[in-house]
Structure formats: C-alpha cells, structure tokens
C-alpha cells in the first residue's frame, strides 16, 4: 500500500492530473454520479422522513468495482470531484462504497487544474461536508417530489408525455408572462423633433439637436398636429447657445466573470447556447493539450457566483498589464468587487489559471468555440484589474427667441483615456450621458420603451455661450415614434432575469433553459425564446392550481432555504415537510378540479399561438380529418410541416400541408397548397413552394415561395396572409394584390 488513489468525476481530468502527480498517485474517474434516485419510481420514503432510495446507476457497477479494487491497494484515498454541491454528492456516494476504508478517505478541492492548484488542494485536504451534501440531497428530493407528482397530473389532465419541474416551471412562467405582456401591449404614439443647426459664421460644422422643453416644461408631443405646430414655430425662430457644460465621466471596469455573466456575454456575443458555453468552459477547466506542455487546465472552476480573485493571480495580472499596456493603465491598488450575499466565498471568479497562456499562444490548440470563450475570459480578467475608461463629455443647451421659448439639447462625447477598454476591445460603447451597470445585457430601450435619442454625438463643433446658430441641412424635422413592447428573452437575458430574481443557481441556468426547450414548451427563433401554446397552457393550469409553487418570490425563498442547510441555519426535514404537505393537498384537489384536455378555444386564445402568427405549429386549419371529422392542425415535424388530426395519438391520420386559403387569382376556386418539386436542384435548392391546387399545365399559374397562414388581413378582410422572413425578424403580408397590407411580427 504505497500509492495514493485520487478519484475525480471526469475522465478528461485523469490525464491532466496524472501529469502533475506522477507515479506515486493512481487517478481514476467515476464518470459522473455513481448513484441516483430510481428512474421507475419516486424513490423517496415520505412517511419516514423523506428518506431517499439511492440505486447504483446502470453501467456504473464496473466503475465501482475498479475503484474498490484500487482503494484496497492505496495508503490514502482522495475524493476530488468538482468543488460544488454536486461534486460533494458524488464524493459522498463514493465514500459510502468505500466504507471499510473510511478512515483513509479525504475530500480534496481543486479550484484549478494546474500544478499549483493541485498542490494547494492536496495541502488542504478535509473531511466530507455533510451539510453541503445534505443541501444537495434536499434539492434532489424536492425536485423529485414536484416532478413525480406534477407530471402524472399533467399527463392525465393536459396531454400525455408532459413533465414539470420545480424551477423549470417558474422559468417557463417568466417567459410566458413576458409573452403576455407583449401580446397585451398597446403602442402609444409620440413625436420627436430635431433641428439641424450650425454656427452662423461656419455653416460647414453642422450638428443635430433635440427639442426637449417649451417655456421651461418638458415637451411631450402626442400627435402629428402638435408636432407640425412646433416645427412651424422653429422654422421662423432664432437660435442661440444658452449654456455649455463640460465634464469627465468615468466608466469603471466590469467585475471578473461569474457563471451567469459568462453565459450572458457568450450567448450575446458568440451566439452560443448556455449549455454549449458550459460544455466549452468545462473542457477548458479540465485540461487541453498545449503542445509540449501537455494537458493544461486553462481556467479556474467555471460554476461560481463569487467575484473573489486569488492574490497571487491578481499580482501576476498586474505585471502583465504593465508589460502590455504600460504603467498608466494600472490602478494604485488591485480592484476588488463586491460579493453577493449568496456567493460561496471558497470559490474564485472564472479566470485564466496562468498569464503564461495568452489567447494568441494557445489558439492553435483550441477549437474555434474554445478559443472565443477563452479569449473572453482572458480579456475580462485583465480588464477587471485596470483603470477606468474616461470620457470627455460636452452638453450644449440651446434656446430659441420669441414665444414660446423652446429648449434644445445635444451631447458630444469623446474617449479621453481608454483604460480597461484597451484590454476588452469588443466591449459595447456606452451611450453618452446614460448611466448603466457594467456588464449588463445590451440596451433594449428605456423604461418607456422609447429607445435612445438620435442626438448623441461623438463630435461637436466648438461652441460658446451666446453663439448665434441657424437652421441648416434638413432644418426642423418631426419624427413619429411608438413605444415598444418589452423584448422577448434571449438565453442571456433570461439568465440575467433568473439571477436577479434568485431563481436557480450558477450550475442550473443552462439546464433550466435546455429542459424547457427540449420539452417543447419554448422554441428559439432568431435567438429569442418564444413560449409555445402548449407551454402557455401548462403554465396557466399550474398557476391556477399551484399558485405558490409557481410564484417567483416563493421559489427564490426556497432557494435561500436550501442554501441555509449548507450553512447549518435550516433543517432539510423542516423545509421538505413545510413544502410537501400543502403541495400534496393541491395535487389531490387538482386531480378533482383541473380541466381535462386542451380545447380548441383555449389553444386559439393563447397569446403564444397568436403572437407568433404561424411561425410555429400547430395552427388550426379548415380541412377535416377524413377518419374522424375533426379539424386538422398544422404541425412542424422532422421533415417540415404536415397536417395532423388533433386527436393524435388516438387518431393517427395525417395529410400534406394545406393553408386553408383560397387562391387569390380572379375567377379561380382552387386552394393554396404546398407543392413539391419533382426534380429539386442540388445542394440548398428549395424543394417545395406554395401554389394553387389547380396548378399545372392547363390550370392556374398562381405560385408563391412564402409560407401562407390562415389569418385574416386587418385592412381588407382578406382570408390569407403570408409570412415573409427577413433579417432580424419576419412580416405578415396580405395576399390581396390590391391591398398588400403588411405588419411586423415582433421578435
């Protein structure tokens, strides 16, 4: 018994750790969890203190045997799964299988898979943490109770095959509530007026100013008539500079990445799914082959909500800043960022493990996605330890002569000192005079949904108080605007919402999103998350019968309670008991009172069905099922659209697509149908188009490439419109040649 046994959960780590530990250590992988609750039953004994029934996962018996055999020959056994609750559960279950060797079993935490990180971990071995394990187990039991009691209810009352989860259902509700807000949103008209002005002595230096006040009061322009009156006043007015205010504004560097912010930035900038981002980060943490260096862990542990940075890493970063950007970019002392109260202080933020591996050096050894994610992490770590960027800002106030007195404003800004922006070149520019939290998602309109002013400039001509100005260029211009509805969530903005509301934890965000997409409660289109009609109906039923479980604040409090188990301030038994008793009563009541099935009206009236306007099926159409007589529904399948009986799977009748619309050609009584090309072009050539059912050599010649939907035109009453997909969205266009009414489908 001479060698030490080190057990990790991932086989990828084995090679990296073996390189650092040498022949005195044997490194094995558990291949993830070795035990879990059974798949075929609940596996929780509710009557005996919610005792879980763990089973060895199928295929893991050989793994356990290999670990036991190696443990018998080892003088000491180190359990080194990931340093989080999930890793603690894996370690705990391995320790149970090694009960006879328990006095030789120790827990090891590796925050980074580097030589230093491994040595530090082995110097600070510890015992398994029962409170951390109990916290994870309570979460698992709670999720199992909800899933195994709610899912059968949905099978029976809504649709066979559905499932529900404690956190995923609340996330789905957030998406559905946003869709309802968009659906109910009523745009409000307003107008803006700008003036192209220049100095009377120099007509070449023109700029555009926004009219903001009339006689000292904020200007609100509700309609075209009011706008035209103001524009007429301005045409005959005189203009002079009333004030020039200059100031410097600092833009502080953003904090280093935590899990949620990395996911937000990567989904927004790299167009990766949150799940993909975490897979890439996991591979960078576990180790990548870097030429003669061998396997190297390039980043610290990637599931963290802590902004803490190790002192030696910060010092190494500061030396890099001096070498790369000069002394002027370095603040006098390291930048320190505030921690959230729920942050696990033992963890660090996500950062490179060593400044010896800049992106340009390792890029050739990484995939394109790995290189992009690693570059983001590197740039953010360097930027967070640099000086703020400084903008020189000039705000000019202009007033007119006569009555009423109009006030105009224009703001100019120039970058006086790059600071941290030189390390993060793709950082979004900040709108002038607009305060925002660093690292936030891209701006999506102000509180009123009115967007940003068009009069924020990067350069202004030299102006002084009392300088006379004159209209030039396009003079006074009136622009009609409408308030905008709240935007649909992207994966990044949903993660931000979940984080702010306390729903889920760093390790769960990606799983939450992938789960509701996989269950077809949500679909992604142009990177936006749309609830499906089924998703909305499930949410409506659950909110009606389980208001507490679906309550955002209740779910956030439950997350805090589960965290408190780890900190020894709460009992898992009390938390599970307090939750389960009222929840089970609601289940029993819902079995009696919840409406069964999905009626056509409930489906048609869902905002998710109407707002997407046919982008996703199913949509009810006119043809009747030839077998049972029910109206067919349009569904999207693996090979495109098709018509299906709504009584599926009892009735499995299906037909080719049919729009339910009459041909718009005069004198033709045919229907618009999908037509397949007999000899489609190779490669990406289109295989289908839409045309008249009487299309042929001697028939109607009407054809169209765009997808028709059974939706009445609000302008002419025509019974069919088509979806024209375009960059950044889609539009509905009336098929009536004399009308051609068009309306945007907001994405």
Instruction: Give the amount of beta strand, in percent.
Output: 15-25%
CATH architecture of the largest domain: Distorted Sandwich
Question: How many individual domains?
Answer: 5
Strand arrangement across the biggest beta sheet = 9-10-16-15-12-18
What do we call the CATH topology of the largest domain?
Topoisomerase I, domain 3
Major pleated sheet: 6 strands, antiparallel, barrel
Proportion in helices: 25-40%
Can you identify the CATH superfamily of the largest domain? Topoisomerase I, domain 3
Could you give the count of β-strands? 32
| CATH C-level class of the largest domain | Mainly Beta
Number of helices: 19
- Unreliable segments of 5+ consecutive residues: 431-452, 611-621
What would your notes on this structure say?
There is one protein chain. The chain has five domains: 4-128, Rossmann fold; 138-184 and 487-593, Topoisomerase I, domain 2, CATH 1.10.460; 189-250 and 390-482, Topoisomerase I, domain 3; 259-383, Orthogonal Bundle (Topoisomerase I, domain 4); 613-745, no CATH class. 33% of the residues lie in helices and 23% in strands. The chain has 19 helices and 32 strands. Strands 9-10-16-15-12-18 form a six-stranded antiparallel β-barrel. The chain has a four-stranded parallel beta sheet with strand order 2-1-7-8, sandwiched between helices. Helix 3 (85-97) packs across helix 5, helix 6 packs across helix 14 (509-518) and helix 8 packs antiparallel against helix 13.
């Amino acid at each position: 018994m001479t060698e030490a046994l080190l057990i990790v959960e991932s086989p990828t780590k084995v090679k990296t750790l073996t390189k650092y530990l040498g022949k005195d250590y044997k490194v094995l992988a558990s291949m993830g969890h070795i035990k879990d609750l059974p798949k075929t039953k609940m596996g929780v004994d509710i009557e005996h203190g919610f005792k879980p029934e763990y089973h060895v996962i199928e295929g893991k018996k050989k793994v356990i045997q290999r670990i036991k055999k190696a443990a018998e020959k080892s003088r000491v056994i180190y359990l080194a799964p990931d340093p989080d609750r999930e890793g603690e559960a894996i370690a705990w279950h391995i320790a149970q299988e090694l009960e006879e060797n328990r006095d030789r079993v120790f827990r090891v935490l590796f925050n980074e898979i580097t030589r230093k990180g491994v040595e530090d971990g082995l110097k600070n071995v510890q015992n398994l943490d029962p409170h951390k394990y109990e916290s994870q187990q309570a979460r698992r039991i709670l999720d199992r109770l909800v899933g195994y009691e709610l899912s059968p209810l949905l099978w029976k009352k809504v649709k066979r095959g559905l499932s529900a989860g404690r956190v995923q259902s609340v996330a789905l509700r957030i998406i559905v509530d946003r869709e309802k807000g968009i659906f109910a949103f009523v745009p409000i008209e307003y107008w803006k007026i700008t003036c192209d002005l220049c100095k009377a002595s120099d007509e070449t230096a023109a700029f555009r100013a926004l009219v903001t006040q009339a006689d000292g009061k904020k200007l609100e322009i509700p309609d075209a008539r009011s706008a035209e009156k103001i524009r007429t006043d301005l045409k005959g007015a005189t203009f002079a500079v009333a004030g020039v205010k200059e100031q410097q504004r600092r833009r502080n560097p953003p904090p280093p990445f935590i899990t949620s912010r990395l996911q937000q930035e990567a989904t927004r900038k790299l167009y990766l799914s949150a799940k993909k981002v975490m897979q890439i980060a996991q591979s960078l943490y576990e180790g990548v082959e870097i030429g003669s260096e061998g396997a190297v862990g390039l980043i610290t542990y990637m599931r963290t909500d802590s902004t803490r940075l190790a002192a030696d890493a910060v010092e190494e970063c500061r030396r890099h800043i001096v070498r790369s950007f000069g002394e002027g970019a370095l603040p006098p002392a390291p930048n320190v960022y505030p921690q959230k109260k729920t942050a696990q202080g033992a963890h660090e933020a996500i950062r490179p493990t060593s400044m010896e591996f800049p992106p340009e050096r390792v890029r050739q050894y990484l995939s394109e996605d790995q290189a992009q994610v690693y570059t983001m992490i590197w740039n953010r770590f360097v930027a967070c330890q640099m000086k703020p960027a400084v903008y020189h800002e000039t705000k000019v106030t202009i007033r007119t002569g006569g009555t009423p007195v109009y006030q105009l404003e224009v703001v100019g800004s120039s970058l006086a000192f790059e600071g941290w922006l030189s390390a993060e070149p793709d950082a979004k520019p900040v709108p002038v005079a607009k305060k925002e939290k660093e690292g936030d998602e891209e701006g999506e309109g102000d509180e009123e949904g009115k967007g940003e002013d068009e009069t924020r400039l990067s350069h202004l001509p030299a102006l002084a108080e009392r300088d006379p100005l004159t209209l030039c260029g396009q003079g006074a211009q009136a622009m009609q605007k409408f308030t905008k509805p709240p935007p649909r969530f992207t994966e990044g903005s949903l993660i931000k919402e979940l984080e702010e509301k306390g729903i889920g934890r760093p390790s769960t965000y990606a799983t939450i999103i992938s789960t509701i997409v996989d269950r077809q409660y949500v679909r992604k289109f142009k990177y936006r998350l749309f609830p499906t009609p089924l998703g909305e109906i499930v949410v409506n039923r659950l909110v009606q019968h389980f208001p507490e479980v679906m309550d955002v604040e209740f779910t956030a409090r439950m997350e805090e309670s589960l965290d408190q188990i780890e900190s020894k301030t709460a009992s898992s038994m009390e938390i599970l008991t307090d939750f389960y008793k009222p929840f089970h009563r609601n289940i029993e009541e819902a079995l009696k009172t919840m409406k069964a099935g999905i009626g056509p009206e409930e489906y048609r009236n869902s905002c998710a069905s109407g707002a997407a306007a046919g982008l996703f099926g199913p949509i009810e159409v006119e043809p009747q099922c030839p077998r049972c007589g029910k109206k067919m529904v349009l569904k999207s399948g693996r090979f495109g659209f098709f018509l299906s009986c709504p009584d599926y799977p009892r009735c499995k009748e299906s037909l080719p697509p049919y729009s339910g619309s009459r041909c718009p050609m005069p004198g033709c009584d045919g229907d618009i149908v999908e037509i397949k090309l007999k000899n489609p072009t190779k490669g990406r050539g289109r295989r289908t188009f839409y045309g008249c059912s009487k299309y042929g050599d001697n028939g109607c010649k009407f054809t169209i490439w765009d997808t028709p939907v059974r939706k009445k035109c609000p302008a002419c009453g025509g019974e069919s419109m088509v979806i024209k997909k375009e960059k950044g969205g889609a539009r509905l266009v009336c098929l009536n040649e004399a009308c051609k009414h068009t309306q945007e489908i907001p994405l």
